[in-house]
Fold:
Amino acid sequence: MISMLLGLLLAPLLTGVINRVKAFFAGRRGRPLFQLYWDLARLVRKHMVLSRTTTPVFLLGPALSLASLVTGLALVPLGGPALLFFPGDLLVLLGLLALVRFATVLAAMDTGSSFEGMGGSREVAIGALAEPGMFLALAVLVVQTRAVSLSEMWAHRSLDLWNSAGLVLALVGVALFLLLLSESCRIPVDDPNTHLELTMIHEVMVLDHSGPALAAVEYASSLKMWIGAALISSLLFPFHTGSAGLDLLAGVAVVFLVALAVGLVESTSARLSMLRVPQFVGLSSALSLLALFLVIR
Amino acid sequence: MLVSLLCLLPALAGLVAFWLPPGPRVRRLLPAVGAVHLLLSVLAWNDPPGGGWLGLDALGRVFLGITSLVFLAASVYAVSYLRDEPAGMQPDMGGEDPFSNAKESVFVGCLLLFLASMTLVCASRHLTLLWVAIEATTLASAPLIYFHRHRRSLEATWKYLLVCSVGIGLALLGNFLLVLAAARGASGGAEVLWLDGLAHGSELDPHWLRLAFILLVVGYGTKMGLVPLHTWLPDTHSEAPSVVSALLSGALLNCAFLGILRAVQICAGAGQATFAQHVLVGFGLLSMAVAALFLLNSRDTKRMLAYSSVEHMGILALGVGLGGGGVFFALFHALNHSLCKAAMFLVAGTFLSTFRTRLVARLGGAIHTLPIAGGVWVAGFVALSGTPPFGLFLSELGVLRAGLQVNPWIAAAFLASLATAFVGMARVVLTVALGPPVLVPPVRESWGKSLPPLALLALALMLGLSVPAWLAEGLRQAAALVGVS
Amino acid sequence: MTGTVDFLLVSMILANLWVLGSSRLPSCIRALAFQGVALGLLPFALYPGHITWDLVMLALISITLKAVVFPHLLKRALLEARVDPQVEPFVGHGVSLVVGVASLALSVALFRRHPLPIVPPSDLLMPVAVSTLLVGLFVLIARRKALTQALGYLVFENGIQAFGLGVLKHAPLMVELGILLDIFFAVFVMGITIFHIRRAFATLDTLEMAELRG
Structure:
């Protein structure tokens, strides 16, 4: 319960951390850490401007994605079992993430603009590769722990798994990190600061949103990053120090370390050409397959 | 001791030749080393193989003798050849940009290193050393092919390098599979690679042994020119200088065949001789058939000779595969074929330097322009097609007899391929030799270029008329060593 | 020691995927060097109880050749030939990656079906060796430039040597040195030939070298 509340509260802070890291590498002071909070507060107070070509489906997009992500957050363990856990909850989580993608693309296509349609097609193309990659990465962990629930996976493992199966965990960790980069639309897959047609994927889909809808979209994307980072934290670095508070603190610390790593990667690499993005996402599948071989044999 | 000298002498001479300036001195190094090498081979003929890395057993002796003889003839020819080659740029026969030759010292040095590595193949007693030596022959001969520096020879060199290196790599894998086949035996496996260690052949796992044999045949077969691994052969033999082509056909293909024979030895020792023979018969018949078909369409003198080499390599494989007397006659055939093919290539080289073209369409009347070379050309064709009184008639008859004993259809396929090849070769040879002579400035035939092919062909004739007893005994011992019944 | 062995073998697999997926030649050469280092260290991880001075010297020579000398020769050929450093593939990089992973799957399945007569020190060694071999052959066939063909040949040889490691604890020193020397001269001669190819054909595209027929 507490981990879910922490997630809801601290998710926008992740974006702030990433932006601060990028600014540090660029030699600037950068935006304040809590900038996204002020942005959200500002956007909520504004009026929405709706295009006349849109239908109610347009507003369904942000609403559905926000709802799915909040529900998904309830499934992710962090420093303790999640609020909801049952056998197969990882499939439900993957399904909710797919629903988020579906809702966003639907809202983008609803605007009737070819610009957003292009973003939608790119997003779906990359998603077609990223979702199996996610399945494979989690499948490796399922085979390794023989558990089909995320919270069970967290509970039955401990850090000395790294001594015996460190290579497998490292491979899965890299695969999940690459998928995190692609799902939350970071460099080298997509640049969140760009407004050039050639290079946008996520940004272009949400161009027409304004006011509270835009606030919902921004908040939802930070929640997605939190979920991705929390998965890496609790599945690969399960701290069992005995005290629930300390576990939670350690888990949240790893989440922020993952955000730091994302910021590092963003600052030091260039965006891949659109033709190479499928290979990048395919690489995470290849690494997961490799880890699967090592676990199965 | 003698054997080590046999390998070291050409190697050292080759390294020295790289540093010598071009001129008569470096050219005369070739026949000098060739003569000493032949002398040493004769002296080492009766030395039994001791233990250790190097030694000449009955098979090694035969192939070493062939190599040494062909090298001596080719080296004598090479002296005149290098003398007559123009320095600087010369026009290309295809009408393309003019080209130049590589440095003479590089040519001579690589030729000597080539001899050294072939000697090492014949003398090595460890299968992986054999592998190292065969790969070394590829590397030593690659610069030789690129002596005439134009695009076609470069293409041939690259193809040769890659196809042979990859093929030979598969042979190394075959070596490792041999060790696997012996792994359950008492000694743990690695001892199977020593040729003296054939005593415990019965401990070899048949499944892995067969796989190893196939890989070894594919690997060394690439170097030998068995179809379908022969793709490098026509290009290389046609683009290389004729001295090099003569050595490739006359000596190198035989050394690769030696590698396959060592593999057959191991299979025979382990009771898998029948399987090995079936594989060899298959490759042999396929090589003969495909080569004969390509011979029908030859437009180029040296390519024709190259496909003829592929065909004769098929006969060698077939001979060993048929067993019985076939092995003896296959080894005899190797000797005869090397002599005749080397002579033919050297004469083709004389034609090329005189008429400046290899295309059959532009050649004719060679007998009038170059009487000696033209005569050797026609006589060599008569020999290669298996006509008495040359030695090839006896060896092909022997293989045919072995084929009739095993399966009349094999003999029928053998004869059909030979007939087709005869038709193809006859067209090229007779068109080039007879007919109205092509107009070229009058040329005098130098002895340096005429004597070696004449000598080689005379030897082939003598072998056809009567085989000396020591040679027959040597071949018999070698055939017995292969172990196939 | 299984951890170290697994790590080295996975490094070899990653190097294979790197060579298959990279679109720039210097990057492929770096992957080859990486694979050479992993292969050089493999005997120590596989047979920790049998370390002799011979083995150490051999490993040093092997690593120096594969990680320093061969990449240097190839890079020099690349520089002197002054070609565009793009890999020009017949088969695209995505499909190549799939082929690479499939070759590993195939090898694992193959060795499950046909168990070896000996127990190799790691059950991942033979599949990785065969997979590296197949990847080397694939790179040789599926790329246009002559330099990548030489690269593919070196990956192929790496695979064969890894196979040999699983079969023989250690071959006689002279033989191992002979093999390394052979490969060195092969790369040397190939490098020189590549330079000449660039000069004669103005490109390293092997499709252009198709004059000899019949």
About this structure: The first helix of chain A runs from residue 2 to 25.
